[in-house]
Batch of 2 targets.
Target 1
Amino acid sequence: MIDSKRGESHPREVKMIRKNREIVGRLYECRGFTLIELVVVMGVIGILIAIAAPTYLDYKAKAHDLSSLTDAQNLLKLANQVLIDYDQIYLLHNTGDGSVIGNENDLLGNFIPQIYNLSLLGKAYVLILNYEWPPPTGRYTRIYVRAYNEKGTDDPFGLNGKKTFQVYMDFLTGQVTKNY
């Protein structure tokens, strides 16, 4: 403000104007990042993603394999229980028959209630045999389970090209064969 008596600015006002100009000047100096800085940061982030993504996908595939292993072990136990409950049974569940095992008639006409529900994206081939053939002489009592997951690790020797876990149990010889 101009002092009317003297015709000049008051000293306090001059200091305020200088401070305001300094603050405004500093704001103009802070303009942001340069294009080179942004490109470098994006490149570093891209490299980190390129390193981490395959590791993460491998980790997920191994987790799906673990769910298949759990399916195979649980199916062996439950199939053993089904053999105890039924005198004669011939249950066949193929990999394309869905995720529910049981809840259907077996090949001998017996209704088998649901014995297991497979994990997400899990597939299994289950064969439970306990019948006489020919009737008075031979008895077949076997459990055969093969389980895999559609998103599991790749294996050319497994079902559908995926790592497959197998369990075979022969009750006549008492032999259990596991392939994990």
Target 2
Amino acid sequence: MAEQIWDSFARINAGERFKRQSAEMGSAVTEAVVEEARVVSGVRVLDVACGAGEPSISIAALLSGTGEVIGVDMAAEPLKVARERATKRGLPNVEYMQADVHALPFADASFDRVTSRLGVMFFGDLPKALSEMHRVLRPSGRVALLAWGAMEQPYFDMTIGTVRRMHPELEIPATAKQMFKFGVSGTLAAALGEAGFSEAEDRVRSLRWDWHGSPEDMWDYFRGVTVPFRALLEKVDGDADVDSAVLSALRESYDGEYVRMNAEMVVATAVK
């Protein structure tokens, strides 16, 4: 089950250990989704595949106690983290529940906005998932989705790219290839149009993706949380030469405080 994979101990442990760095690294990506959603006071927002709570927490804070935000995810453990974060922030207008985007447990026309940050690439049946988003949106409602662009970018080139240059016989797992399927311009916009949305568009944005910490910690984090690459990474686990090569690549972008990178992200929007 997908939810069991994303609930894995290694991922949860790495996410907890590096939660501050992870939140900081993803802050610009979160801001981009919130910006594209065009949230206004009083709206009701559904955040799909919300994981540990973004952008739902940021949207709830922006609403300043008005409206309502509901975050859904198939994996139970990240939702526990999201609830804890929301409680610590004192946000009464956000709640979390376990649910599948392919069969959303909400009535038609229930939400003014639907968002998803780095989740849409993993929907098993994309047309069904987007149709469900369309169904629960109110007329003139807006969807804002964010996905990875092409794999050829610093975050993956310095990590997985280094591994594969040393071991070209290792193939990228099918689950990992999914992460980059919207890297071709227009792909996600076309899927939104086919699901019934209008004014669908997507574009690549270069967003800050800096790791606040050492290259060693970043490599530990990457191996722990990047579930789609796990089958490949397990084959080089404990390989000192691979670790040394990856760390050498990361150090080239390390300024003593941050591993500095930009991430190429696809941002797609549409209206009902």
